[in-house]
Prior knowledge:
The protein is of the alpha+beta class and about 210 residues long. It folds into 2 domains: about 15-130, no CATH class; about 135-210, no CATH class. It is built from 10 helices and 4 strands, in the order βαααβααββααααα. A 4-stranded mixed sheet has the order 1-3-4-2. Helix 4 (about 75-85) crosses helix 5. The longest helix has 25 residues, at about 135-160. It is elongated, with a radius of gyration of 21 Å. The chain starts with 16 loop residues before the first strand and ends with a helix. The model is unreliable at about 1-15 (pLDDT under 50).
Amino acid sequence: MSEPATTMRLVDAEDVFDYPIPSTERLESHSWIAWHFRRWLKSEFRNLADLEVRAVGFDLFCEAQDEAPVGTLPMDERLLAKLAGVTLEEWKRLCDRPIGPLYGWKACRCDNGHMRLYHKTVLEMAKEALGMREDHLEKRAADRERKRIKDLPAQIVRGGGTARMGEDAAFIIQFDQFLLDRFDGRQRRPNVIREALELWTLQQQEKLKLHQS
């Protein structure tokens, strides 16, 4: 709770945090979470925000526990206003204050490809509630990556690519990262793969021209 809120904006893919909790995890059986009250009492957000913003911010910490993935919030300000229990106009007014309700929240990329907001402290709370260790989360992330790599050759062929592309291990790894960077949040359907392949080809041609010049 120590960093100022960032406005919701597009960020470079390289700068986006990969959220470690899978979107399939739920806290449905939990009606409470561990709350580190001393950390809250000493936090910058609590001590700098006015009472109204502080109350909304606290509600958002709790609402995030019922979101998917657990511990995240949507980026759409209309949905945020609904979660906060205020009108959109009131939400915008709160966000315009020096310390707003999204203090400390940042953009993240979820395992389902969606872009959402996360907070370091809320993430710690969610992981503690789920009983998840870092090694478990890393294994889940590695499993998702393996599945993406495994599925990609067939997706490339369905999208108009060649079987040779699907057999090129180096290309598969590079193209997977290219899709994450440039087509984040979009399902890898044939039309998306086709568009990505066309863009990839153009970029490779431009790189070749620069190398030859």
